[in-house]
Amino acid sequence: MTSVPSSSAFERALCGFRAHFGHEPSFGARAPGRVNLIGEHIDYNGGFVLPMAIECDCVCMATEARGRKKSRIIALEAAGGKGEEWSFDTFRDLYELWNVEPPEGFRPGSWQSYVAGVFKFVGERCGTPFGEGRVPALDVVIASDVPLGGGLSSSASLEVALGKLIALSARVDVAAVEMVQLCQQAEHEFARVPCGAMDQEIAVLASEGHAVLLDCHGIGLARLVPMPSTDHTIVIMDTGVKHALGASEYSSRRSTCAAAAVKLGVRWLCDFDVRDLAAKRDILSGDEYRCARHAIMESARTLEGARALEQRDFALFGELMNASHNSLRDDFRVSCAELDTVVEAARAIPGVLGARMTGGGFGGCAIALARADVLERLCEEVTRAYRVAHGRVPMIFATRAGAGASKLMLKVEE
Fold first, then answer.
1. Residue 339 pLDDT > 50, yes or no?
2. Would you call 199 a catalytic residue per the annotation?
3. Which of 43, 57, 139, 199 is flagged as catalytic?
4. CA atoms of 181 and 161, how far apart (whole Å)
5. What DSSP letter does each residue of 268-334 carry, written as one string?
6. pTM of the shown model
7. CATH architecture group of domain 232-399
8. What angle do CA 47, 43, 173 make, to 5 degrees?
9. pLDDT tens digits for 112-128?
10. Could you say which of 3.40.1390.10, 1.10.230.10, 2.102.10.10, 3.30.230.10 is the CATH number of the domain covering 2-226+402-408?
11. pLDDT of the residue at 4
């Protein structure tokens, strides 16, 4: 698929490329951020999730760096928006990074680690065993309007956009499921983030106007679910905070879920029948029981939510969103005061059908399903409540379901 996006990231990437390299880019790719409508902390528990792509993109533009072995990567959003450049010998430095020690300026979790991981794994898939294949050294500019740190998958949008760019440079067609796997591997082994595949899947598989119901038993088990078009909208409310305990608590919840699954005798926690859970309460710790109850019931809510959207029963979907947030707050315990404030303020507005936190928790974003005609009131009242409670202003914006990753049309052909 080829597209010409209207996002500000496209314009920033194009202007940034011209400014840094003095000529036009030869090719480019984009991939969207995502928001999970329902099905939180399920991607590593073998259940169902229902994300959609949002109308915010990561955009990568490039040209071949002729006569040089080093790739130059300009990340315009790095260093607080000041931008950073990283140069590396595309495959010698990555070999050392993988087998010996990191090159200067690299650390796991940095933007460089995501770039390095994608260059290594997608590069190898494209026939590049450390410098002998078809991926040339590249001059690349990266721009993104996916909010950073808000749980909207800025990292996966970068991975998939860059992966598609590298495949374009090598003139190799990488299948959708393969691209998901390679980008997930990059995040696991270079960025050192033990993520599920949901974020990469939605960046690759999304379809405009649809959410994607994903079965987390495997990659690519998906079906499209139509989203409302003009009468209702998804509203994202970014609290602008991310509490430091998020990473450690995420790992703790994963471990607790895994321990519960072992005690319940299932590989995937969501495969256990919730009707039998109460009878097993004595063999689980309190934390394990609460996490299991959330995961099993959340996966069921997701399936019911997909059916509700297909039947245009938006009131029911809103009720399921509310139940999801309550479970994440009370059983899984990954909400926080800031998220609860925006969720409660949104729910109090007539015309808002439901609201919940989204993402890993402990900050980041919440979402609401609202009638389109109450958007202005929602923005005003949620902003007011958040300012009173926390002394700051949230970023609030409406979004439709966007398209998955695509090649960019950089020149209009006659």
1. yes
2. yes
3. 199
4. 14
5. SGGGS-GGGTGGGGGGS-HHHHHHHHHHHHHHHHHHHHHHHHHTT-HHHHHHHHHHHHHHHHHTS--
6. 0.89
7. 2-Layer Sandwich (3.30)
8. 115
9. 889 988 988 998 888 75
10. 3.30.230.10
11. 36
